Amino acid sequence: MLAPMGVFDDASTIAQPRVVAPATASFSVVVVAGAGAGARLEVAPERSVRALVGQSPSCDLRLDDRRVSRRHLALEVVGDRLRVVDLASTNGTRVTGVAIERALLTGGERIELGDSVLLVERLGASGAPPPPAHGFGRTLGGSPAMRRLYPLAERLARSNVSIVIEGETGTGKEVLAESLHEEGPRAAGPFVVFDCTAVAPTLVESALFGHERGSFTGATETRHGVFEEAHGGTLLIDEIGDLPLPLQAKLLRALERSEVRRVGSNKWIKVDVRVMSATRRDLDAEVAAGRFRDDLYFRLAVARIELPPLRQRQGDVALLAEHFWSRLGGRGPLPADWLERLEAYDWPGNIRELHNAVARRVALGAIDVPEAPTDEAAAAIPEGDALGRILALDLPLPRARELAVQELERRYLTRVLERHGGSVAKAAAASGIARRYFQLLRARQRKREEP
């Protein structure tokens, strides 16, 4: 089995990332109309996660506005501007009267969402840049996006609060959770991982809480669940958003009372466990859709960390590739021309995909990173022929199919929205899919298009 993504053994041997100019401005967002008028949120470049605005208690700026979604929009400083991203909200976001999906603001603009209006104010030069570091525990990364996370991670490691780690598949959520465990007071205790997607739904309760011998067909012996295994340490519940709804109430009870009961037993067992959760899903959206209990979400998300995708981590592709190359036994330096191709690729599979690409290169000596077609090949493809351009990349069939489906979704969503005047409800109905699923498709497309 290959080593976990983002792990390193000797930080002193890691090549330093290229220097990236830090963000230079901070912004203040003030509610000037609607519920909560007068509330203020400062968004600084050193902030460790995007600031969220919406109805959910997990939001940094909470608006008690029925026309505002649970997670309506996200705010983040990019250079000397404030990036506003609509998070597939029900009623949309407008900046100075113009409907937007994302926008870069300089200060003085008015953001309209629901019945609320926010005024963006530029505060000028920011405070100290992210501290110089290229890792936290087992987690590796020297980009500004990662360095902003480390001060928060250090504080959370010393605490005992529940944490939700959000991020795309392959961004290193499990490695970060293990880093938090190893840098904290429970480091001497066990670190146990339970993946909600790796266990059959009928066996999840037994895996979590254990079972007694004879409690069900096939239970030939008494077994501890992961809560008992993690006693005195940390339990990471991976892909918590996939936990079956009937079991969420039982998990909530275990968390609130710090005790579990094995399947087939009447005895309650006290456990001392710090619980972390990881998810690729938007749990606020899952709560709104009725697929995740809001009381469980509030119990789990005492603190929140959002891991950025690799495409947003400037300089980290080279840093990680050189580390994996060395660790996997690559001979000599990493080929410079291949490294350029690694940095030019968008890595939809994130760190996991990068690790596997380096592992294949070490094992087979094959160059397997997709690259753009040559000028001659590109010239032979008719303008607008997206399928032809995908074929020109000479990708494996699964990856080519994935890109083709993404392009189809992008064009279809754009076309159907234009036909129905931007109305999500009408566009979803015309598409023959549920409105919420239509919104999820839009959100997924927006994430792909983010720089």
Please tell me about this protein's structure.
With 451 residues, this protein is an alpha/beta fold. 34% of the residues lie in helices and 20% in strands. The chain has helices at 144-147, 149-158, 173-182, 204-209, 226-229, 245-257, 283-288, 294-300, 316-327, 336-344, 350-364, 375-379, 386-392, 397-419, 424-431, 435-449, and strands at 25-33, 40-43, 51-54, 61-62, 73-78, 81-86, 93-95, 98-100, 102-105, 110-113, 116-125, 135-136, 139-140, 163-166, 191-195, 234-238, 259-261, 268-270, 274-279, 303-306. It has a 6-stranded antiparallel beta sheet with strand order 2-1-11-10-7-8, with no helix packed on it. Strands 4-3-5-6-9 form a 5-stranded mixed beta sheet, with no helix packed on it. Strands 15-16-19-14-20 form a 5-stranded parallel beta sheet. A hairpin with a 2-residue loop joins strand 7 (93-95) and strand 8 (98-100). The longest helix is centred in the C-terminal third of the chain and has 23 residues, at 397-419.
Task: Give the tags.
disordered N terminus; alpha/beta; 16 helices; 5-stranded mixed β-sheet; 20% strand; 451 residues; single chain
